[in-house]
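Hey, I'm writing a tutorial for new members on how sequence and structure tokens pair up, and I'd like a real worked example in the thread rather than a made-up one. If someone can provide the structure for the chain below, I'll link this post from the tutorial.
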Amino acid sequence: MTATCVILDIGGVLEITPETGWVQRWEERLELPRGTVHERMHDVWRAGSVGSISEGEVREQVAVRLGLDTLQREAFMADLWAEYLGTPNEDLIDYVRGLRGRCRLGILSNSFVGARERETALYHFDELVEQIVYSHEIGIEKPDLRAFEAACASLNVRPADCLFIDDVAVNVKAAQKAGMQAHLFEDNARTITRIAAHLDARPLVPRRAPIT
């Protein structure tokens, strides 16, 4: 027996996450050349996304590398999380909530240490889907095919029975390469239509040859 499945990304799909310009504001405040923050923090951001550094260590490195005092560090991290978490995509979340019981539901997200705790507290994604696979917890980011394999394994479903939804084209292509069906998120209306089509699809039953 097969289980139809829908797996969604978080940032840019379940969360609306426009750029807030917080990094540029901090560079201006600290009188740093444009691009300095990402240049100094690049390896820390990368480590945080695959869980090879703790949230506490991230905070320490932010202070050391940018020369921030305690209050500045806390304000910097607050700005980081404000953009990261964005606002909930309520219409899509409500639609997905209505799918419970009709199909298996999961999340696959390129994430950062501390994301699960904050997104659980704010948006209760743990109540929306059955399984959430975060890159910082499995040590693998999309578009690595192993990330999609981990998501399917967490739900005990076949890739071919899954529809994956992401707002990044390279991740959509990778999901297809992993054997999943995939949809590039552009807006709620088209995404909901695509999910509905996936759930309504039925395997074709070969017709028997007429008896002669």
